[in-house]
Amino acid sequence: MLSLVDLSLVSVTVPRMLAIFWMEAKEISFNACLTQMFFIPSFYVMESGILLAMAFDRFVAIWYPLRYTTILANNMLVKIALAILARAVAILTPAPILTKSLESFRTKVIAYSYCAFMAIVQIACGDISEHIVYGLMVIVLSVGFDLFFIILSYGLILHAVFRIPSWEARAKALSTCGSHFCVIALFYSPVVFSVLAQILGYQMAPHLQIIIDNLYFLVPPMVNPLIYAARTKQMREWMLRLLHCRIC
């Protein structure tokens, strides 16, 4: 499911970005902008939900290994997938509706490579307090919620792992979480940096904002397959052979 969402996220972001950078296609219709505003954040919220589900999977595997297949049966996995999809749709559906209610804008230029909701709101005229509240709610109910419970899950996992007397068993337990932790760090780091910059009142240069914005959507889908593939025996052997050949 993570691979499918990664592919979908890249499919809705990369073509437009390439059109901007290669073909100077810097204009977009209002309806296309609203479409971007719904689908791009929706896939991002879905991926965040999948990372939370994977953290829960690791938690169950460490704390309840004998009940793992019972707790995470196929019907439960289907329910989790549907909940991730439903949450993304429910949270992001109001975004294009609220944007259509805006009457006029001070400029038609935004410092983003796609139509971000808050970027559009910030250039709007009139009262935008409701839109700002909605934007904050989206962050809290998606990334904020997921990141809190991911940290909680890993805190409980580490608590359980360090109670294991055998060092070998500890290392094996931690190795099952290593790749997932790397993916989480890559996925959430740009978001946390951007949010902290806004809270602290740091005004980023437009080009820096665009770079960070692109890191949200391009780096995790590109690196995720490499991180998870590195854990497979065949991939490790291939990488070792490649390094050995280069050294020789």
UniProtKB/TrEMBL annotation:
It is found in: Cell membrane. It is a multi-pass membrane protein. It comes from the Eukaryota. One of its GO terms (cellular component) is plasma membrane. The keyword Calcium does not apply. Residues 1-228 form the G-protein coupled receptors family 1 profile domain. Keywords: Cell membrane, G-protein coupled receptor, Membrane, Olfaction, Receptor, Sensory transduction, Transducer, Transmembrane, Transmembrane helix. The keyword Kinase does not apply. The chain crosses the membrane at residues 37-56, 76-97, 135-161, 181-202, 208-230. InterPro entries: GPCR_Rhodpsn (IPR000276), GPCR_Rhodpsn_7TM (IPR017452), Olfact_rcpt (IPR000725), OR51/52/56-like (IPR050402). GO terms for molecular function: G protein-coupled receptor activity; olfactory receptor activity. Putative odorant or sperm cell receptor. This is Olfactory receptor 52D1. It comes from Galemys pyrenaicus (Iberian desman). The lineage of its organism: Eukaryota, Metazoa, Chordata, Craniata, Vertebrata.
